[in-house]
Amino acid sequence: MPRPETLPQATAHSPAHFSDRAPRELLSQLYWAAVRQALPAHTLGGYLPEPPKGRTLVLGAGKAGGAMAHALDALWPRDLPMSGLVVTRYGHTPPLPADAAPARIEVVEAAHPVPDAAGLAAAQRILALTEGLTADDLVICLISGGGSSLLTLPAQWEVDGVQGGISLELKQRINKLLLESGASIQEMNCVRKHLSAIKGGRLAAACYPAKVVTLLISDVPGDDPSVIASGPTVPDPTTCADALSILNRLAQDASALEADFVLKALESGVLETPKPGDAVFANNTVHLIAAPQQSLEAAADLARSMGLNAYILSDELEGESREVGKVHAALARTAALKPASAVQPFAKPCVILSGGETTVTVRPRREGAAKGRGGRAGEFCMGLAHGLQAQANVWALAADTDGIDGVEDNAGALVAPDTLARAAAAGVSLNECLDRNDAVGFFQPLGDLFTTGPTHTNVNDFRAILVL
């Protein structure tokens, strides 16, 4: 699979035409155009703060953390001191160029989406680095999607003289509950913020009175800084009561988590986060350096340069992945079968694009059934294939822009007019795979997994449907 730097570039003098590209190749090129738009090396330079009188400290977390650290290190004047620590996902640190100067920002790796001891150690070190900061110092925080799991520091508290706290093991179990529940990213991160000693604005509070400049790559619908990576450096408008309500709703039997004491701590308000207007944010600024809409527009521009009509549905679609896939299938079938009109806006040949963050509710596994494997993108593609019902002249790609769909090695999957026929010939049942959330089990035998490796950025879901 081509990497973004090796993709052929269309120019005004020699435009590539969609008819010269196989559908799968064309869809891959649109994906890489979206990824390229969000690479930190291309976006970070316009947001560098002025060097401070004091020291410059760089802190950060997220799947784009390594690439953001390398980009900042390369852009910051070599004669000015800078140090720091950033944590990213295992395998997501890009190699430094052979001619690069020695790195000034340390990059470490930890687990995602379920936190581990390495993430805990990184968060402890990051918080320790904030000790002794003054108003003359500058903290540049590099935050991207995935930071909620990578920057894990379970909350500790005291109520009526009694010490309490969350273990890493309990934090992992709560995180797994959230991931499998179908909760939205806003709901998950509301809980995560209130059960953390570093997220939900607490890192900014630790940096006070230093100036804090946060550079964000958004992976959430709406680009809300307080949701991205659970907002470690921005005010948190959500409350302990919100987090308690979410946990009570998702954990029908909260005692199964052995977390009654956590629920009581939330109920007491002892885990409340810093709110908008708090003085600890007085010297803080936030810049969004890459967002899903920009990446979708880059893909749309490339499609138009190839002679296709391009339509962006939205950059913030949410909902059950398979159901969102079925809705997209209805739109694609309409575009394929009906001419454009006042009530049917899609004129083929076209590509229909969307982004956002869908969810997957993990179904109970039937006794003796194989465990399902896959993520949001693969689940979307199964729903899409189900809804398309082998519609002619429609191809699709759904993939996560970080290169990893859930916890698997693939970024997503491809759907073609003959997907269902090839599955039947291979003895693979779409309905059975849907029942066990097994996108890998469905698409892998067909050779239709889309595998890229880590992309070193993350603006979340990318979906493209080609209608010819």
Any descriptors?
468 residues, alpha/beta, 6-stranded parallel sheet, 34% helix
Describe this structure in words.
With 468 residues, the chain is an alpha/beta fold. Helix content is 34%, strand content 17%. The protein has 16 helices and 14 strands. The protein has helices at residues 23-37, 40-43, 65-75, 117-129, 147-150, 168-180, 185-194, 202-207, 240-250, 260-268, 292-305, 321-337, 376-388, 419-426, 430-435, 439-443; strands at residues 56-61, 83-89, 105-110, 138-144, 156-159, 162-165, 211-217, 284-290, 309-312, 350-356, 394-400, 412-415, 449-450, 461-467. Helix 3 links the parallel strand 1 and strand 2. Helix 1 packs across helix 11 (292-305), helix 7 packs across helix 9 and helix 12 (321-337) packs across helix 13. The radius of gyration is 23 Å and the shape is globular. It starts with 22 loop residues before the first helix and ends with a strand.
Shape designation: globular
Order of helices and strands: HHEHEEHEHEEHHHEHHEHEHEHEEHHHEE
Helix coverage percent: 25-40%
C-alpha end-to-end distance: 23 Å
Compute the average pLDDT: 92
Structural class: alpha/beta
In percent, how much strand structure appears in the residues?
Answer: 15-25%
Low-confidence stretches: 1-14
Count of helix runs: 16
Largest β-sheet summary? 6 strands, parallel
Instruction: Enumerate the strands of the largest sheet in spatial order, edge to edge or round the barrel.
Output: 3-2-1-4-7-8
- Please provide the count of β strands: 14
| Computed Rg | 23 Å
